[in-house]
Amino acid sequence: MLVSAKEMLNKARDGKYAVGQFNINNLEWTKAILLTAQEQNSPVILGVSEGAGKYMCGYKTVVGMVNGMLEELNITVPVALHLDHGSYDGAKACIEAGFSSVMFDGSHYPIEENIEKTKELVAECEKLGLSIEAEVGSIGGEEDGVIGAGECADPNECKAIADLGVTMLAAGIGNIHGKYPENWAGLSFETLAAVKEKVGDMPLVLHGGTGIPEDMIKKAISLGVAKINVNTECQLAFQEATRKYIEEGKDKQGKGFDPRKLLAPGFEAIKETVKEKMELFGSIGKA
Ligand SMILES: [Zn+2]
């Protein structure tokens, strides 16, 4: 059964580790992440962007697929199904469809409007026992058409949003979605510490987990980050393994064209990536 992310993130915050959010795109992605979480006895959050939700035929299809897998793969570790960077309407649709967690990304609104909309969704999630993530200070890079410059969040604005009763808060600290450019300045730990000071116990979320050096990840966790989003890294691992399979001509040998064989190396590569991240984040054995 899907669970809210609240308990797993509070435990992570107290235990000084982070739970990974891994974004899903299809059946193979979802199966790879769920099986790895179960094998590693780790809590996990499945992230679904609005674009990926559309790609998978809509949120109800996603909920049906994930719930089916939890049952048929005997997944017993805590799993949250979470909307990633949701719009106001998208969050409502996911709540309706049976997600156990949503993110409302109002970071592109003026802070007053972000507060107002977040407040409404907090009330709705509270009623249903769902977790909700809010964002202050946009994350750099591009995600589903929303382009952010990688700004650092204003700690006072973070407090205003945290005080609305959200479960977790994504604060921009110079992090970026996708691959990091060579001249990237690194995470702003000054901002992170200032945000933490204002929001107290609120579990913090680090977006754009792909390509952040390991020592920075560990330092961020020590400063209150309890959830780290990984998306691009699984895509790159899948791409590389699939490319290798085809370049080695394996799709032309015997029944190598069978989609279950063709997609297997990419599937295994996602599993390996998820395991590596769980090791780095410290969530293994914490289910
Ligand atoms: Zn993000």
Q: Would you give an account of this structure?
A:
This protein is of the alpha/beta class. It has a single domain (6-281), classed as TIM Barrel, CATH 3.20.20. 48% of the residues lie in helices and 17% in strands. The chain contains 12 helices and 10 strands. The chain has helices spanning 6-15, 27-39, 50-55, 59-72, 88-97, 111-128, 155-162, 189-199, 214-222, 232-247, 259-262, 264-281, and strands at residues 19-23, 44-49, 79-86, 101-104, 131-136, 141-143, 146-148, 168-171, 204-206, 225-230. An 8-stranded parallel β-barrel has the order 1-2-3-4-5-8-9-10, surrounded by 9 helices. The chain has a two-stranded antiparallel sheet with strand order 6-7. Strand 1 (19-23), helix 2 and strand 2 (44-49) form a beta-alpha-beta unit. Helix 2 (27-39) packs parallel to helix 4 (59-72) and helix 7 (155-162) packs parallel to helix 8 (189-199). 47% of the residues are buried. It binds zinc ion (ZN). Zinc ion (ZN) binds next to loops.
